[in-house]
Design goal:
This protein has 108 residues and is of the alpha+beta class. It is built from three helices and three strands; from the N terminus they run αβββαα. The chain is rod-shaped, with a radius of gyration of 20 Å.
Length: 108
Amino acid sequence: MKMDLKELMDVFKRFQEEMQKIQKESESKFYFGDSGAGLVTAKVNGKLEVVSVDITKEALELNDKSLLEDLIVGAINKALEKAKEEGAKQLQNFLGPISPFGNINFNL
């Protein structure tokens, strides 16, 4: 299949527009992670920014600073992992038909 430069530029422009659309959609989503059986819950957005951390009264009553810090880190990491997995899935779905590498894992 031959393409002239104008056709190639049009394809590239559509590709860019679709990638921007996917990115914008992703940035508006929220992902949650918890740790300690729900003692701590973290919320992150599609930009991989921590939006909030919720610490239950029960977690505070444990009076264990080190444990609480670990629970916070765990909840945030779970939420970030979910956001990264979703972003990688969206990118793979978009690139799948054109990717010369087949099913690859995009670690975003």
